[in-house]
Every structure is written in C-alpha cells, then in structure tokens.
Amino acid sequence: MIIDCHTHIFPDEVRKKREVFCQKDKGFCSLYQDPRAKMVGAEDLILSMDETNISKSVVCGFPWEDPELCSLHNQYLLGSATRYPNRIIVFILLPLTDLKRSERELDWGMEHGAKGVGEIAFYDRAMTDQDLETMAPIFRKMEQQNIPILLHTNEPLGHFYPGKGKTSLEIFYQFALLFPSLKILLAHWGGGLPFYELMPEVSTAFKNVYYDTAASPFLYSKKIYGIAKEIVGVEKIIFGSDFPLIGPRRYFRELEESGLSLEDREKILGLNFLKVLESS
Description:
By secondary structure, the chain is of the alpha/beta class. The protein is built from 14 helices and eight strands. Helix 2 crosses helix 3 and helix 5 packs parallel to helix 6.
C-alpha cells in the first residue's frame, strides 16, 4: 500500500477565482498569484492516484489567515473524504490567529473524520515563540488526543522559491521540546533538521518527529534518502509528494535509485505513516 502523506486540493471557487483570493490573503498570493502555479480538486487527485497506484492520500488545504476561509477549505476537504472514503485522509487547517476558533475547528474536524492538522505554514512572516505560547492550549489538546500535525519547514540556504518561509529551524526544536508527546511531521525533510539529530539532545527531543519527502526532487539529490536513514532511521522518513507540485513517479524513480532496500522503500511509501496514524 502506497500512502502519500502530503497533497493539496482546493475548492472550485478558489481555483476559479484565484485573483480574488490573492487579494484576500498575502500568503496565498505569494504562492498562487502566478497562473502557472497548479491548483487541483479532489477528482484530479484521485485520477493521479489511480495512475500511480497510490492507495490513499492525505489532503491538506491552505493556512488561510481568515478563519472563515479555513472553515470553507476544511468543509471541502471533509466533503471530498465523504465522496472518496477509502482514498482520502483529511488533515484540517486551524486559524492560528484565533485560539477559540481553532479549538472549535479542531473539535468539529475530528468529529467529522479528520485524522490530523496541517499543513501549518507561515509564508508572509516567521512563526515565533509568541505564536507557540498563544497556541499552546490547542497543541496540548492535540497531544492529549494523539492528533498528529504537519508543519511546513524549509532549508534556510539555497535558491529562493515561492513558499520559502522565514521561520528559523530553532522554532521547530522549541516546538518539539514544548510538546514532547505530539506527533510532528516536518515537511520538506524538515529543512535540513535530520542532520541535527546527530546531536544527542536534539535526537531525544525529536523522538516523535518524522520527516516527509515533499518537494525533495527540487531541493536535494537522491542521496538524501540513504543519508537520512543513517542519521534518523528509515522509520522516521515518510513519503509525501506535495502534489500537484510534483508528480509521484519522480519520487518513485529517485527511491529506486537511492540504494535503499525494497523493505526500506515500502516503509517510506506507506508503512511508516500507517504506524503514525495507528498510534494516534
């Protein structure tokens, strides 16, 4: 079974009125103002999954600043799961500017079948210690209910691209220290954080941290699979494509060329994520 832990789908209204929503959210505009930036709906995702033999996909929305837009997107995600109950796993959005609204949204989403939260991202500013303090009650609640979270991370060096955020890697270390029982999935290889698990204190703090492979072909050579396995263990690596940014076949090809065993590839392509859900 292949599971893609990181995809994005958008309601028809957002896809058809891109310019309108760009005016409503600066972060959204930074990623999607270019008409070449792909947005797809649930049906497009299912078609791709069928073509690439992917059994299930986690669908994420966009971290809108407006709580109403978060709710709109969550309704679409959960509605899509209703239409494709055996194919789609929902990670809902939380409006992190509003604690009470986030708590209501979390309760509502979990009651309606969501399995996690994410992808949480800050595109027009950096996530700060103050954000962690403000939202601590909801993260503690997620800890207590074993609800995993997917966080956007990116490497601080290298080329610029739309969506390359300003949050320092230090914040994610603080996040793990503050909420040690929370299952944390760091997107995009954690922005290079696996390397720091060579430090014993970081490895201890990151006992419940996992790394997804989203956008890997755009960021790293295929050698990263073997290197990450050596540092953090293959059990902490989870396949995510960031579809429709990159199609799954490119990941499959790089994995096959990585030198990892079939057993290791099967763990990355689904078994590791199943264990995260089973322990949640």
